[in-house]
Amino acid sequence: MTNPNSHQTRTSLRSLSALTLAGMIAVTLGGCSKPGPSASDVPVRIGYSAWPGWFPWKVSEEKGLFTAAGVPVRLTWFDGYLDSINALNAGQLDCNSQTLGDTLSSVAAGADLQVVLTNDISSGNDQIIAAPGIRSVADLKGKKVAAEQGTVDHYLLLLGLKKARISEKDITFVPLETGAAAAAFVAGKVDAVGVFAPFTTQALKRPGSTTLFSSKDFPGAISDHLVCNREFVAKHPEKVQQIVNAWFATLRQIKAEPGPSLAILAKRAGVNETDYKAYDAGTTIYSLEKNRQVFQPGTTMTSLPFAVEQISAFLQAVGLAKTAPKLDGLLEPKFVNAAN
């Protein structure tokens, strides 16, 4: 979906003497020096990327809703979705916006994460889009299909192939970052592409292209969340609670001021407001009540505990997860249950 370069500096004897003197002065003056920032002042590092269910975080930021909730936040935008996942796994973020399936893949690879909030479920905004002449999933046999390997739309592609009883070996899979995959499809370099909104808008600019299937055909299979490092949650539960509170305040803000909010959302998405409105049907934002319901046990994909088991098994079956992810404590509902 970058590691900072390190360098080593040398200190001359003269500089060392100056530092020693400064240290003596600091000890002498004692309480005259300013204290460092307290833990409560350290911003929470949250990542997000291009998805309609996550663009509202920009409204949270611009409208000062994190501050109103009492929590400092450093919101970081990622052009590449996979980069945001990697940043969370590397400890460069405290929390990230990502799908349940991609979270399970990370956990299977050793990441220690917790799902603390459900932003939405994808109800059509993840799509497999095909070139003219490809009218069914069966027509993908022998064709080049691009998607970002190991992430949400690769997962959607595999779901569609399995439903049609087609193996991934029957297609030529082309692993590309989502934006690059959409561009390659429009340029005619691949025959089909797996993309999510707003990249769907770009891909569908290819004349005659059509959507073969989408997340709408697999209800509940793709859910989107705020996922945090488990250690961060344990050390700073009050901050996690404030962030979750800020999210629901953001949804109220969007409802109360739809016009100004739409302008912020469309600008962050890089599309016009008309195009952004078209994404509404394909993303089902979850209310506070729905959040509380989805964390409960159930027997359909609308229950996160059930979905976790089903997706985990599927990821292992198709090779997107090499080992079974540890599921104990992955879902943490206490923050939505306590949200105001």
SSE layout and pairing:
Layout: H1 13-29, E1 44-49, H2 56-62, H3 65-69, E2 73-78, H4 81-89, E3 95-99, H5 100-108, E4 113-122, E5 126-130, E6 144-147, H6 152-163, E7 172-175, H7 178-186, E8 192-196, H8 199-203, E9 210-214, E10 223-229, H9 230-235, H10 237-256, H11 258-269, H12 273-277, E11 283-285, H13 288-294, H14 304-318, H15 334-338
Parallel strand pairs: 1-2, 1-3, 6-7, 6-8
Antiparallel strand pairs: 3-10, 4-10, 4-11, 5-8, 5-9
Helix pairs in contact: 2-10, 2-11, 5-14, 10-11
Word description of this protein:
There is one protein chain. By secondary structure, this protein is an alpha/beta fold. β6, α6 and β7 form a beta-alpha-beta unit. It has two domains: 197 residues, Periplasmic binding protein-like II (D-Maltodextrin-Binding Protein, domain 2); 92 residues, D-Maltodextrin-Binding Protein, domain 2 (3-Layer(aba) Sandwich), CATH 3.40.190.10. It is globular, with a radius of gyration of 23 Å. The strands form two sheets. The chain has a six-stranded mixed sheet with strand order 2-1-3-10-4-11, with helices on both faces. Strands 7-6-8-5-9 form a five-stranded mixed sheet, with helices on both faces. The protein starts with 12 loop residues before the first helix and ends with a helix. It has 15 helices and eleven strands. α2 packs across α10 and α10 crosses α11.
